[in-house]
Amino acid sequence: MPARFPFWTEEKLRIADTDMNGHINNGAIGAFCEAGRAEVLHEIAGPPPGRTVAMAVARVEIDYLRELHYPGRVRIGTAVARIGSSSFTLEQGLYSGETCFASARSIMVVMDHATRRPIPIPDALRAGLTRLEPIA
Predict the structure, then answer these.
(1) Which helix (H) or strand (E) holds 82?
(2) Is the four-CA dihedral 54, 59, 63, 67 of positive or negative sign?
(3) 19 to each of 32, 70, 74, 119, how far by Cα in Å?
(4) Contact between residue 39 and residue 132 where contact means Cβ atoms under 8 Å apart
(5) Using the 8-state DSSP alphabet, how is residue 51 labeled?
(6) What does the alpha-carbon distance between residue 100 and residue 64 come to, in Å, rounded to a whole number?
(7) What structural domains and CATH numbers belong to the chain?
(8) CB within 8 A of 50, min separation 6: which ones?
(9) Tens of pLDDT, residues 38-94
């Protein structure tokens, strides 16, 4: 697995993730990406009820590189690819063993809880994001 991802999480494949083509469905792969994002955000910003800001997904791109079949486990590597003024981009690689079967990029927008409008990324969150930039 590439050392470039500073954060990893693991998910177990479920038989329910399999579609009529006999492979893991693209919707399940999207859910694995979401699980990786959630773990990263929990790590750097704490659990949602305790966060001082809201974060929303503005865009997700997933490249499906290979088929994946049940049973097994998925390892999701995540890195922060870009930090802007009110948004950041997460880059992910999804692996079965040493094989990357999907990659994803997600743009997250930081928002005020009350107004639901974008706000500048707070310093503490920015510091957490910086720790998760890709490893060279």
Answers:
(1) strand 73-83
(2) positive
(3) 15, 10, 17, 40
(4) no
(5) -
(6) 9
(7) 7-130 (3.10.129.10)
(8) none
(9) 999 999 988 777 777 899 999 999 999 999 999 999 999 999 999 999 999 999 999
